[in-house]
Each structure stands twice: as structure tokens, then as C-alpha cells.
Design a protein that fits this description.
The chain is of the alpha+beta class. The protein folds into 2 domains: 145 residues, no CATH class; 238 residues, Aminoglycoside 3'-phosphotransferase, Chain: A, domain 2. 43% of the residues lie in helices and 19% in strands. It is built from 12 helices and 16 strands. The strands form 4 sheets. It has a 7-stranded antiparallel beta sheet with strand order 5-6-10-11-9-8-7, sandwiched between helices. A 4-stranded antiparallel beta sheet has the order 1-2-3-4. It has a 3-stranded antiparallel beta sheet with strand order 12-15-16. It binds adenosine-5'-diphosphate and magnesium ion (MG). The site of adenosine-5'-diphosphate (ADP) has 17 residues, from strand 11. The site of adenosine-5'-diphosphate has 17 residues, from strand 11. One of its GO terms (molecular function) is ATP binding.
Length: 399
């Protein structure tokens, strides 16, 4: 095994190592084998348990590693999460999930501060954080190497729960259970934003110009793609789309917060009847400095709204549902989310944080980004934006 770039020793024979992987740096668990040589550890080797013991000793700085702890709890017994993941997670004692950042993001990383602010703000709608470990490279900004959260039994994300509820609503001609769920998600997102309100500032002209120019750039990229249904749609309706995106340029003075930044149904876990927000890594399509920037709350709201529409498109692909019933379910789920969000934010005294004028523009931008992403990395996802773009443009004045 080649020498790691850096390492945080947890015990004499367990460590968190920063190694050079096939596609960049990785933070991985390592353990010594019988001949004292370091090797990559797996669930069951006790490295995640050792990390909990380190966190239990409190916050500290060790070389380029910074340990932030919110618990003195420890636990034993490791198993893998067993789902497809970007990173690698180990469940310890059915109470904690240790996530090793096996794809180290370029720093600065938004999660540590956002999670701290949310904890401080008393936000309950996320898996309770136990701690975060960051690592600062010699010539760069600190990034997340590992984090530990409460384990949520039986958690599924919205690509399961939302798709199932939309399917049921369309099949049974009963939108009530779906609307009840999205209403609760709207409430949680409002509570998330209220808990982040201490980070609020006002957008500058430069911010507004960056949002507008970024969205126009994405539109140009989409229009230059070959032979995709949504590309033809984007070209046909280019002027309409530009008119919608142009509103972003007028957002100077709108409130911005250090929001989630990559909110969609896949980031909302349902566990034991609760809905919880996860993944504060920021938007993967932006570079690291941009991921840190404050955003209008409408960007998070748009991400969630548009992903509910996308969940409906996924539901339609895998089941034969009456288009009219599906459209009714789709509209009911989204309306309940938006209504509950605005209502809860107002009750919490933060109505001023939400400016819905940019909702349509951010929804269109989200679809455009997904077209680019599907074209470059995930062609089997293209049916979603192919259906979503014309639907969104024909929603009338999309909200
Ligand atoms: P990644 O972004 O690396 O794929 P996520 O944090 O989005 O990882 O989690 C991926 C999946 O792992 C989730 O969809 C969920 O099924 C599971 N998961 C994540 N966090 C928890 C948790 N705290 N408790 C239980 N399961 C979780
Ligand atoms: Mg995720």
C-alpha cells in the first residue's frame, strides 16, 4: 500500500487516511493487519467504532485535521449501509452512521458550518449530527473527510417515498396522503430556512448578474447539445425561456441565506413517519467557492418543487397511470408543499426570507442543469427533463 498523503490516528492500529485514489483524493478507513501493515478497512474492522470514541473525547485539532464533536456517546457493532452511494457509510450499533468521504470534494466545504448553524438554531429536521472531521490540504481550503449522524432506521429517500405516494394518488384518485406528506416536507424546509436565518444578507447586483449569466450559460449549453428531445424544445422556446431566466438578473436586494443549495426529494429521508433533510455538501454542478455562496430561499424551494414534478415523471414511466390522474396528483403534491412552506415560514416570523418571484426561473434552471447532466453522465435520466421541460413551460406562468 502506498503511503497516505496524511492520516488521523484513531488508535495504534486504526486510522482515517487521506489517500490518492483513481479519481482524486479520498478519506478512507484503514486498519493494521497481523503483520502490522496498513490496509483498507471495511465494516466490521472497528475503524468507525474508533472514530466514535475519538468524537466522544471532544472537539480538537490534530495537524491538518479538525475534529468537531457534539456527543460523548459511543457504540459497537458495524455493518455497511448496503445502498449505492457516492461515499461509503458504516452503521455503528444501529445508532450512528459514519460516512467516509471516499470522494474528497475540493474545499471549502459548506457542510460543517451549515450543520453547526442548524444545530445551534435548534433545527430538528435532520439526522442529529454527532460530529464532523475536516482535513485541510497543504495548499487548499478545508474539506469534509468524515461525518457522523444519528442512524435513521428504515430510511428511504424521496425517489422512493415520493414516487410511491404519487403512484398511489394517481391510481386511487386520492391525493390526500401525498399532499399530507409534501405538506410536512414544506414545513421542514421552512424550519430549515428559519434556522439558517442568522446567515441572511441581501443579494448584490453582482450576485444577481451571476445567477442570470449562469442560467443563460446553461441554456446555451443545452441548445448546443445534439438530438435530445429537450434540446429541440429549448431551441423552439428559447425566447420564452430567456424571458423567465432574465428575472434572475433583477434580484439584487433579495434576501439570501446559507441555504441547502442542492435540495430535492432525494435529499429528504423518510424514517419512522418523519421527514428529514440530509446532504449539506452543496450543489455538485458548481465549483467549490460558488457552493459556499448564499442563495435565495426560492432556489431550495424550486429544487424541491421541480423534483416533485420529476418524481411524477418517474412514477409514470414505471406504472400505467391515467395521465389526468397523474397530472392531478402532481399538482396537488406540489401545491401542498408550496402552501405549507410559505405558511410555516410566515408563522415562524420569517416571511421576508422568501421571494417567490424567482421560483419559475430556478425551476427552469434546474431542468436545464439536469439535461446537461443526463447528456454528459446519465443518458438514462434524459426522459425526465425531456418530459419536464415542455410540461414546465406549458404550466402557464410557472410558479
Ligand atoms: P451519498 O450522497 O454519498 O450517496 P447520502 O448521504 O445521500 O449519501 O445517503 C445515501 C443513502 O444512505 C440515503 O438515501 C439513505 O438511504 C442512506 N442514509 C443516509 N443517511 C442516513 C442516516 N442518517 N440513517 C440511515 N440511512 C441513511
Ligand atoms: Mg445524496
Amino acid at each position: 500500500m502506498t503511503e497516505p498523503v496524511d492520516a488521523l490516528n484513531l488508535t495504534d492500529d486504526k486510522r482515517l487516511a487521506i489517500v490518492t485514489g483513481a479519481d482524486g483524493l479520498a478519506a478512507v478507513p484503514e486498519a493494521r493487519d497481523a503483520d502490522r501493515r496498513w490496509r483498507r478497512a471495511r465494516a466490521g474492522d472497528g475503524v468507525a467504532e474508533a472514530l466514535l470514541e475519538l468524537l466522544a473525547r471532544g472537539s480538537a485539532t490534530r495537524g491538518a485535521f479538525s475534529i468537531r464533536s457534539w456527543t460523548s456517546r459511543i457504540s459497537k457493532g458495524e455493518r455497511t449501509v448496503g445502498v449505492d452511494q457516492t461515499n461509503e457509510s458504516v452503521i455503528v450499533g444501529d445508532v450512528a452512521v459514519v460516512k467516509w468521504a471516499t470522494h474528497l470534494q475540493d474545499g471549502p466545504h459548506p457542510a460543517p458550518r451549515r450543520i453547526s448553524v442548524l444545530r445551534h438554531g435548534g433545527f430538528k429536521g435532520m439526522p442529529s449530527p454527532w460530529g464532523v472531521i475536516t482535513w485541510e490540504p497543504p495548499n487548499g481550503a478545508a474539506t469534509l473527510a468524515a461525518n457522523v449522524d444519528d442512524y435513521l432506521p428504515g430510511a428511504v429517500d424521496g425517489w422512493t417515498w415520493a414516487v410511491d405516494l404519487i403512484t398511489d394518488a394517481a391510481r386511487d384518485h386520492d391525493c390526500a396522503p401525498l399532499a399530507a406528506a409534501t405538506r410536512r416536507v414544506g414545513k421542514v424546509v421552512a424550519e430549515l430556512h428559519a434556522a439558517l436565518s442568522e446567515t441572511a444578507t441581501l443579494a448584490s447586483r453582482t450576485d444577481a448578474a451571476r445567477w442570470r449569466d449562469g442560467a443563460f450559460h446553461t441554456l446555451d449549453t443545452v441548445c448546443a447539445l445534439n438530438d435530445v428531445t429537450s434540446t429541440a424544445c429549448a431551441r423552439t422556446y428559447r425566447l420564452d425561456i430567456e424571458r423567465i431566466l432574465d428575472r434572475l438578473g433583477g434580484l439584487a436586494g433579495t434576501p439570501v441565506i446559507e441555504g441547502h443549495g442542492d435540495l430535492h426529494v432525494g435529499q429528504i429521508l423518510r424514517s419512522q413517519g418523519r421527514f428529514l433533510v440530509t446532504d449539506f455538501d452543496g450543489n455538485p454542478v458548481l465549483d467549490a467557492p460558488q457552493r459556499m455562496l448564499p442563495i435565495p430561499t426560492a432556489l431550495d424551494v424550486a429544487g424541491m418543487t421541480q423534483s416533485l414534478a420529476h418524481a411524477g415523471i418517474v412514477a409514470a414511466k414505471y406504472t400505467s397511470l391515467e395521465p389526468a390522474a397523474l397530472a392531478a396528483a402532481d399538482a396537488a403534491g406540489r401545491a401542498a408543499f408550496l402552501d405549507a412552506y410559505a405558511d410555516r415560514l410566515t408563522r415562524l416570523g420569517h416571511a421576508d426570507l422568501y421571494d417567490p418571484r424567482s421560483l419559475a426561473a430556478f425551476r427552469v434552471q434546474q431542468v436545464l442543469r439536469e439535461i446537461v447532466y443526463a447528456a454528459r453522465h446519465l443518458p438514462r435520466w434524459m426522459y425526465v427533463p425531456d418530459t419536464a421541460l415542455p410540461a414546465l413551460l406549458h404550466e402557464g406562468t410557472p410558479e
